[in-house]
Design brief:
Bound molecules: adenosine-5'-diphosphate, iron/sulfur cluster
Distance between the termini: 41 Å
Mean pLDDT: 96
Structural class: alpha/beta
Radius of gyration: 26 Å
Largest sheet: 8 strands, parallel, barrel
């Protein structure tokens, strides 16, 4: 299908200093959890974006000098000539598809505790250093240090140029070194602190010197915060505007972000598409240079509006390019309905935060391009004429049906409920999680185009029916249920008193049960579910206590960049948050909460307890038939986990059917 000519504007080339981006689709720098540790893996990932039509593809943050390491988070590095080779690997793969390659040069300053290099952290003043609460401080940079920094930056830029990069960044955002200099807290008494002009001096000098060094062939981009506020509604743009006006046409490109990272890359639970627009729409009015910014753009209409209204020149994307490396190509070819839209869950960010390769809920091939040779759009044709029965239409079952259908297998999927989608359908009805339904919708759309995939809804399948159906292969994707007995991370045995009608689970609530209050939500799961259930019940007017053995709500979400916001919401809603607490006993309308530290018991009234602790695989069909037919479990039925894990499991089963899979380690290593 030809594309709507209105979208032609998105495919116009954009001049960026000495180079030209072939279109407006710009993959901004984003971390991958790979960095210098996995050069082949990261090069293949970036190359895939270029193949999918992203006109510019950038690296992750790339350290210019050993005084800036971010371990345990894997960064790139351009510390010496040894680092050039692995960057060239990426550049070649990006150039092979006609895209520009950009490198984000980075110095963390006080954000780097230098746990790996053991170099003394640097900062504009002596201040606490490190990402977390490392008990170390920076050395206040003197003039010699500033001179060194400028030299390191230029040397790294020259190495980037030798690696073949087209765009070199000066990174002045996200509380790294240059941002620390720009900040009002920089009250140095020399010409690098105090007044706005002084605080912007180092940035100015770095732009000028980087341009002098590599500006003949490379564009120089500046990543800059358009707001200095910490909150969404505190979009204080006055001082950033003054600085940007001062530096206006110095760089070749402005890459605009906001100060609050948890807003800039906020989950869909808290931030909508184009969330940065209000804070940064002024930028183009004060510079003639091209502007790029992000906003979890997945709608071509929104992209078009952003360009037409002069908010940006280039559509910046990290997550939309992760969820769908072929997004630009799909718009180009008039296949917008095939865009695998990011759901805004930030599972991709957990890779960086755990020092492991990036994963994506929507795109199970993300991070597997090199080591497994997986392609997000292509999958080998079927290896036999086997007929496949899939039982269960959650994310695992739907992904398996989609990918097997694409391979050409005859697939039948039976789902007990009227609605397909399993947990994503149920969970997307909870507060803030509506976009998660995209996991279901994209797959249903794909399957809808394939006559070789059939559905049976409202079909509770039992073992006799499976045998009678006579499929050659059976995939059991029947999911998992939340446990009522309280087994979880803290309680290794059932909680006394659990087996009463007043104890329910999130499954009951998602099935429409409205409990009576007061309610205790006991969260020993620590991801989003406990917090989201508490939020829903509180909004329904019930008195809610959220008790957890952890020291905060939804601990895992600190690595999806949303823990602070969840805790803020829980407290603002008036939910009583009780931390460091287990449940000693449930007893006719009361719950005995027990401090995990002192054992002290506190009795509270609770007409209902919502047990959010762990889940039990629904695998009885599998066990009944395991020795009799070719049958396999996938998704939560195999092992309860994230939606991303379920999708990956369904995808892997589809890829590996009739395929040769390496024995032992099932992927290439580097
Ligand atoms: P996953 O995350 O692994 O995909 P879900 O819990 O989201 O798991 O989905 C499992 C799906 O399987 C649910 O929609 C559920 O209704 C369905 N299901 C469970 N048991 C049966 C069964 N016996 N027959 C058909 N469908 C079933
Ligand atoms: Fe989007 Fe989630 Fe994929 Fe990240 S993991 S790109 S947030 S769908």
């Amino acid at each position: 299908m030809a594309r709507d000519p209105r979208f032609d504007v998105l495919f116009e080339p954009v001049e960026i200093g000495p180079v030209t981006a072939p279109n407006r689709f710009y993959q901004v720098p984003h971390c991958t959890g790979m960095g210098y540790r996995r050069p082949q893996t990261v090069a293949a990932l970036r190359g895939m974006k270029a193949e999918g039509g992203w006109g510019t593809v950038c690296t992750e943050y790339t350290s210019i000098h050993p005084t800036s390491d971010d371990e345990p988070f894997p960064t790139g590095s351009l510390w010496d000539d040894q680092d050039i080779e692995w960057h060239s690997l990426m550049v070649e793969q990006v150039h092979a598809h006609g895209a520009l390659a950009g490198v984000e040069l980075w110095h963390g300053g006080a954000a780097s505790a230098n746990l790996y290099t053991r170099e003394t952290p640097l900062g504009p003043s002596s201040m606490p250093a490190g990402y977390s609460v490392d008990p170390v401080q920076t050395k206040a940079m003197d003039k010699a240090d500033i001179k060194d920094l400028k030299r390191w930056h230029v040397e790294a830029a020259l190495r980037a140029q030798r690696a073949g990069f087209d765009i070199v960044y000066v990174y002045a955002a996200h509380w790294y070194l240059l941002r620390q200099f720009l900040d009002p807290s920089n009250q140095r008494s020399d010409e690098y602190g105090g007044s706005v002009e002084n605080r912007a001096r180092l940035l100015r000098e770095l732009i000028v010197e980087t341009k002098e060094a590599v500006g003949d062939t490379c564009a120089v981009a500046v990543r800059f915060s358009a707001s200095s506020g910490g909150d969404d509604d505190d979009q204080d743009t006055e001082e950033p505007r003054e600085m940007l006006e001062m530096l206006s046409d110095l760089p070749d490109l402005w890459d605009i972000v906001v100060n609050d990272y948890s807003y800039e890359m906020g989950t869909s639970r808290f931030v909508e598409e184009a969330g940065l627009e209000a804070a940064m729409s002024w930028v183009k009015s004060v510079t003639d240079k091209p502007v790029v910014s992000v906003g979890r753009f997945t709608s071509p209409e929104t992209m078009l509006r952003m360009v037409r209204q002069g908010v940006v020149d280039l559509i910046g994307a990290a997550r939309p390019s992760i969820a769908d490396p072929f997004l630009p190509q799909k718009i180009r070819d008039g296949r917008d309905d095939e865009i695998r839209e990011c759901i805004g869950c930030n599972i991709c960010y957990t890779g960086d935060q755990t020092g492991t390769p990036i994963r994506c809920t929507q795109n199970p091939t993300m991070g597997e391009e090199w080591r497994k040779g997986w392609h997000p759009e292509n999958i080998p044709a079927k290896g036999s004429d086997s007929k496949v029965l899939i039982v269960g239409g959650g994310p695992a079952g739907l992904e398996a049906a989609t990918s097997l259908g694409k391979r050409g297998y005859d697939v039948t999927l039976a789902e007990a409920r009227r609605e397909l989608g399993g947990r994503v359908t149920l969970e997307s009805a909870l507060p803030g999680l509506a976009e998660w339904a995209r996991v279901r919708d994209w797959r249903l759309n794909q399957i809808g185009k394939r006559p070789n995939v059939e559905f049976y809804r409202e079909s509770v399948v039992d073992e006799d029916q499976i045998l009678e159906f006579g499929a050659d292969r059976v995939l059991i994707a029947t999911g998992a249920k939340w446990r009522r007995d309280g087994l979880g991370r803290w309680h290794e045995t059932p909680i006394p008193g659990w087996d009463t009608p007043s104890v329910i689970t999130p499954d009951d609530i998602m099935d429409g049960v409205m409990p009576t209050g007061p309610v205790v939500v006991f969260d020993d799961d620590h991801y989003y579910m406990g917090g989201v259930i508490a939020e829903q019940l509180r909004k329904a007017g019930l008195d809610v206590t959220l008790a957890t053995p952890e020291n905060e709500v939804s601990t895992y979400t600190s690595i999806t960049e949303e823990q602070f916001r969840i805790q803020q919401r829980i407290l603002t809603l008036g939910i009583d948050l009780v931390t460091g607490t287990g449940v000693a006993r449930i007893d006719g309308g009361t719950v005995m909460l027990e401090s995990i530290h002192t054992g002290e018991i506190r009795e509270i009234e609770a007409a209902t307890v919502v047990m959010t602790t762990s889940r039990e695989p629904q695998d009885s069909l599998y066990h009944a038939l395991a020795d009799r037919i070719a049958i396999q479990r996938i998704g939560d039925c195999l092992a309860p986990g994230t939606i991303a894990t379920a999708v990956y499991s369904g995808h892997r089963a589809a890829r590996e059917m009739d395929a040769e899979v390496p024995v032992g380690v099932p992927f290439r290593r580097e």
